[in-house]
Backbone:
């Protein structure tokens, strides 16, 4: 087969027509057809010729009429054919094996056995030779228990072209071999699935045995002239197109198959989109219903002091109170430290004042006494010496006496009024102590305030903590908070879904599928018209040939026949109309 | 606060007269009776300066004194009730106002007493005499005698100057643990304190109040005393 994909000539016209019919740009048409494997096939395949030249087989079969099944006899058949029309007939008895001879020939040519099982089990050796165009070929095999094992041989060179073993394998080997030799492609088919329009069609490929069904006509296949007894998959039409040579036929089938697939996908996508929308609506409805229920539940709950809305405030209050309490504690610690330091100083001053007073008292006491001896040598102080002290001179060493040591006025024991320096120091110390005392009292007041503040802050913090604790553990508040959270959650879910599905408001994008379906449908229709136009001319010729052939074979009453492009044959005979099978039964 | 800096609560050195007051009461209350020998009009005597120094140490350091009383009770030298005296010394008699830490000398607590003794001697209240062989320069002892005028003035002091009478009373507490002991024994007992023994020469001997307080509490509880 050849193909013409150029934009010129019949192909270009076809593409333009498809574009016009589908209302799609030409480029889009090309892309869609290419992506779906639809190609314009305007020329006819070259005819091939198959001629059987020899058939041979032998084997063992039960003796006819024998009482036991173990009684066997050999049989053998050999027939060399030449060009011409041949007839196989039997004399005096039926069931002599006429059909078996034809079935054995067919078995070897197409790989698929139509033999009766018992006959196949009788066979031992089988050989069929034939020419395919100009090539001499042979199929030779041995049969064991009905199962073939053998090879396809090129007779001129003796080359083994293919080998097979078993029924299925033989069929596969002959399928590949013959399609290759005849340059045929598997027949593409598509059939609507029975479950519905959105289910992908059953597509398939019919291979060599389907083609080979056109090689013979038997009684069983009379119902349909072509197609091996099966009208499924439009096979008779395809075979008719093939063997009569209809251009555009394969293009039409390819477009048809692709269109069915795309249409199914499109329907499925539309169904899915519809289902999605329905599911989405159902989900939104369910969420809305749950939200209403949750709101109603919340409405029914008693109001509490600590609603969930204020929980945040309580956390905030606790945080603030905690910070304030910490601050107050810090202030308290500082005040206490300062207070303690002042108090330590005050105590020091108390000690100093005490020591100074004690020293002054001791000094005054001893000063009130009269010296009697020298402290160094115990020599008695004489009266004249003592008298010197009245003049301010030491009675012992003649040094000038400090005013406090003057004896003009002897102080009383327990008094310290005689020592102005000491008294001045003590007065200073007292003043300092008074200041310290004042400072301590001041800081003590601050400390007291700080203590109160800290205690209040601690109480506020505890109160805030208790309120929060209550808010988080109180059953009524907990129930209300949970209800509020449920409402909030559902509101969020609803909003989120509505927002998300807004983008999906339109169904899934089926535009590409729609475009492809339109293009493929148009391609199928255009190819179909071209194929039918071409086929009509051929069929008219064939109808005349069939009528002439029928009359030649003695059907004098035959007026005319009409073989349709759907492989249906209608016969007009003696003014009446008859079904094709009856006519052909006669012809057969 | 800076204005008061440098005035420690404890550690201010006592004046000459303050020391003279303590020594007068130590001689009056803790001196041995002077039955025979000694100078004319002598009524009491403390033999050896070492003993005088050690007694003064106990007078000036109430925490050490309280500790000595506790030890004496624990050793059976004093009845358990005396623990109350230890508590009075340590806690109730304003020890912080009367504590004067001493420096560590070569032979233990030591502070020159000459000037204070001169005050007493000059006024004819005491007499100091050398004892032992005068040719023996290595072992030379001084004995401190309280004379009758001294005894009289001690009496005057305790009755007329209540503020100073504290030392008179404190001498009685010291007497609980020190009466009859010689200086060497007193020194030995003081050396048992790590704080005392470990203080380098010329440095202040630190107090032990914080250590004695729990010891006293434990002893009181052990003896069932309130």
Residues:
């Amino acid at each position: 087969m050849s193909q013409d994909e150029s934009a010129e000539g019949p192909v270009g016209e076809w593409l333009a027509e498809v574009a016009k019919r589908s209302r799609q740009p030409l480029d889009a048409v090309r892309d869609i057809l290419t992506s779906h494997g639809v190609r314009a096939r305007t020329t006819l395949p070259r005819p091939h010729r198959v001629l059987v030249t020899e058939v041979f087989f032998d084997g063992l079969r039960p003796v006819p009429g024998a009482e036991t099944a173990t009684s066997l006899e050999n049989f053998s058949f050999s027939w060399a054919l030449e060009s011409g029309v041949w007839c196989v007939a039997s004399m005096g008895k039926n069931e002599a094996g006429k059909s078996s001879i034809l079935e054995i020939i067919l078995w070897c040519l197409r790989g698929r056995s139509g033999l009766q099982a018992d006959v196949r089990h009788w066979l031992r050796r089988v050989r069929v030779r034939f020419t395919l165009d100009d090539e001499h070929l042979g199929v030779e095999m041995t049969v064991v228990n009905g199962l073939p094992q053998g090879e396809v041989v090129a007779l001129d060179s003796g080359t083994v072209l293919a080998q097979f073993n078993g029924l299925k394998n033989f069929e596969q080997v002959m399928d590949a071999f013959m399609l290759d030799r005849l340059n045929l492609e598997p027949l593409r088919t598509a059939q609507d699935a029975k479950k519905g329009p959105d289910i992908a069609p059953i597509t398939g490929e019919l291979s060599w045995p389907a083609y080979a069904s056109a090689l013979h006509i038997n009684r069983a296949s009379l119902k349909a002239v072509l197609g091996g007894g099966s009208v499924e998959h439009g096979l008779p039409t395809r075979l008719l197109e093939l063997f009569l040579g209809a251009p555009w036929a394969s293009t039409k089938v390819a477009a048809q198959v692709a269109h069915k697939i795309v249409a199914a996908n499109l329907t499925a996508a539309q169904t899915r989109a519809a289902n999605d929308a329905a599911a989405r609506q159902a989900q939104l409805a369910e969420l809305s219903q749950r939200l209403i229920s949750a709101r109603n539940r919340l409405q029914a709950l008693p109001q509490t002091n600590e609603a969930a809305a204020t929980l945040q405030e309580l956390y905030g209050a606790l945080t603030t109170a905690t910070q304030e309490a910490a601050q107050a504690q810090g202030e308290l610690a500082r005040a206490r430290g300062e207070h303690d330091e002042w108090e330590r100083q005050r105590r020091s001053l108390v000690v100093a004042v005490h020591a100074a007073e004690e020293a002054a008292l001791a000094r005054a006491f001893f000063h009130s006494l009269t010296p009697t001896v020298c402290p160094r040598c115990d020599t008695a102080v004489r009266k004249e010496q003592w008298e010197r002290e009245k003049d301010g001179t030491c009675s012992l060493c003649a040094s000038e006496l400090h005013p406090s040591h003057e004896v003009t006025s002897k102080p009383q024991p327990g008094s310290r009024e005689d020592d102005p320096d000491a008294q001045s120091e003590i007065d200073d110390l007292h003043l300092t102590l008074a200041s310290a005392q004042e400072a301590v009292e001041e800081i003590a007041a601050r400390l007291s305030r700080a203590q109160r503040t800290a205690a209040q802050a601690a109480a506020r913090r505890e109160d805030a903590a208790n309120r929060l604790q209550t808010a988080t553990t109180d059953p009524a508040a907990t129930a209300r908070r949970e209800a509020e959270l449920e409402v909030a959650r559902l509101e969020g879910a609803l909003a989120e879904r509505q927002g998300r599905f807004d983008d999906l408001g339109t169904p899934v994008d089926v535009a590409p599928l729609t475009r492809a379906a339109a293009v493929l449908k148009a391609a199928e229709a255009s190819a179909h018209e071209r194929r039918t136009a071409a086929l009509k001319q051929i069929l008219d010729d064939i109808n005349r040939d069939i009528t002439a052939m029928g009359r030649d074979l003695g059907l004098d009453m035959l007026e005319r026949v009409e073989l349709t492009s759907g492989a249906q044959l209608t016969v007009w005979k003696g003014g009446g109309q008859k079904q094709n099978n009856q006519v052909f039964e006669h012809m057969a | 606060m800076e204005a008061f800096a440098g005035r420690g609560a404890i550690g201010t050195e006592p004046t000459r007269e303050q020391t003279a007051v303590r020594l007068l009461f130590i001689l009056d209350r803790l001196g041995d009776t002077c039955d025979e020998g000694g100078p004319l009009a002598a009524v009491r005597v403390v033999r050896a300066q070492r003993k005088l120094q050690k007694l003064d140490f106990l007078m000036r350091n109430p925490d050490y004194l309280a500790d000595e009383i506790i030890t004496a009770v624990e050793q059976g030298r004093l009845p358990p009730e005396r623990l109350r005296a230890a508590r009075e010394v340590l806690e109730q008699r304003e020890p912080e106002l009367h504590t004067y830490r001493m420096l560590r000398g070569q032979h233990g607590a030591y502070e020159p007493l000459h000037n204070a003794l001169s005050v007493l001697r000059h006024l004819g209240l005491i007499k100091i005499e050398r004892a032992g062989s005068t040719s023996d320069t290595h072992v030379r002892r001084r004995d401190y005698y309280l004379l009758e005028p001294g005894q009289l003035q001690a009496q005057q002091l305790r009755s007329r100057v209540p503020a100073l009478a504290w030392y008179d009373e404190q001498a009685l507490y010291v007497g609980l643990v020190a009466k009859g002991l010689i200086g060497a024994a007193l020194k030995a007992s003081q050396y048992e304190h790590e704080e005392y023994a470990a203080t380098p020469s010329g440095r202040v001997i630190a107090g032990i109040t914080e250590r004695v307080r729990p010891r006293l509490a434990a002893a009181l509880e052990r003896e069932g005393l309130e």
